[in-house]
Amino acid sequence: MHLTSVIITALAGFNLQQVYAATVDPKSWYDQHPGLARINKVDQSSNQIVDEFGRVRFFHGTNVVMKESPWYRPSGFSPGNSFGLQDVQNLRDLGVNSIRLGHHASAEPVRGQYNMTFMDIMKQQTKMAEDHGIYVLVDVHQDLLAGQFCGHGVPPWFVKKGWVSSAFMYPFPTKLIPFPVDSNGMPTPPSICGTVNWGLTYTTVAVGNAFGRLYTNYDGLGDAFASYWKLLATQYSNTNNIIGYNLLNEPWVGDSYYHPELLTPGVADHEMMEGLWNSAATQIRSVDNNTLIWFEGSTYDILSGFNNVPLGDGSKTVQSFHYYNPPQVGSVSTTIQNRLKDNQRLKTASVMTEFTMWMGDANQMSGMVDAVTSADTYMMSWMGWAYENLYNSSRMPYPELQAHYSRAYPTAVAGTPTSFKFDESTATFNLVYNINASNGAPTEIMLSPLTYPNGYNVTMNPAQSLVTYTVDNRTLALFPADSTQDGTSITVTITKN
């Protein structure tokens, strides 16, 4: 097959291929490499996540987390409340290629006894995502750690009565009089939890005390946390679409009342968290040597305070970070630049796994634009918070949110990416990269059918340097032409029909 046009027009639903006297057979390559590529390494020279073919990988995604019993979202479609077939189809159409899937630690209702029904449901949801081309980040999620603190994360048996004196119980000192509790230590009535700012109550005596006990392995609680991760890794070690294990969402600094120095940005990372992350990583590696381990520091860190990544191997870890203002005081651009500095020091990669992605006032909407464009500028992958916020009262995605999720972006770059940029106003996308022509794997670009309903045009410079192939209605593959040399700088431009 020989075509001479430099401009390729791809129509949604059609499979078109451009070949310039090339011997490469794109269809054959995909036939020989079906499904999602395994992702289990960080290139420490570029501080980027790479797949089994050595391609640099980028992710745009969302968070799917259920913060109350039964701790998973049901399958029947209910916009913002479900996670079933219709949900993953909607995410696929948006161009999402990843989700951060919350695995609640309350799956261990009795210490040492696990709810395998919950585990099976989470595995089914993970497989459903894989069938639709979506990767999963397994996340142990918490906010305020426990139900006794109007939060969630650990099971009820974790927190014991008497850890703090009655006068200092939750939410002292946010409120000077502690909440009344039921026989299980839960605030009662439950509606009383709505009378405090949950974010500020991380500074309560009770919450800090409980985190401190977790980090210092009081009563083997740190060991129990690590054992839970061993179970999760056993469940997922052979699952193709797992991009990593996110050890714990937004860990608090620890017992800052006894140790106020922990409130200094970066201190708790090495003083408190590093030991627990190493313990959990050791248990994971006892059953899974390949999957990337994702770790977080304090939510208000400026620069990471970790002495090293979990178990010291930056090629097998990723730093997960969030951007909200507050607690961050600078711009999202500054936060991303700080994480890139961390990458250099820790010899690892990072991904922004939460930031504001819900409807709000003009300032909030402007901040959302700043977040996604800054991520492009610094070639940073991201996952917005959260899927539950996507839909309006008409059961359709908010157009403003859809526009961000359905941005064009490279999902896999066979070479060294130099830059990429997407203009939401025109749907024009540009990618510049130095090609690795020798490994035979394609660069892939995500082009959502919601953004390009009538197809798109592809131009490249140098002309005829690539073989184009439409894998499906959202994925454009770019193979090197026979004449293209390793290291050639290639610019690809996508425009909307």
From TrEMBL:
Q: Which InterPro entries does the record match to this protein?
A: GH (IPR017853), GH5_C (IPR041036), Glyco_hydro_5 (IPR001547), Glyco_hydro_b (IPR013780), Glycosphingolipid_Hydrolases (IPR052066)
Q: Glycoside hydrolase family 5 C-terminal domain location, by residue?
A: 407-494
Keyword Transcription present in the record's keywords: the answer is: no
Gene Ontology annotations of biological process type: carbohydrate derivative catabolic process; lipid catabolic process; polysaccharide catabolic process
Key words of the record: Glycosidase, Hydrolase, Signal
- Provide the leader sequence positions: 1-21
Determine if Cell membrane is one of this entry's keywords.
no
Record-annotated Glycoside hydrolase family domain positions:
87-388
Which GO MF terms does the UniProt record name?
hydrolase activity, hydrolyzing O-glycosyl compounds
Q: Which PANTHER family match?
A: ENDOGLYCOCERAMIDASE, PTHR31308
| Family designation | Belongs to the glycosyl hydrolase 5 (cellulase A) family.
Q: What is this protein called?
A: Putative cellulase
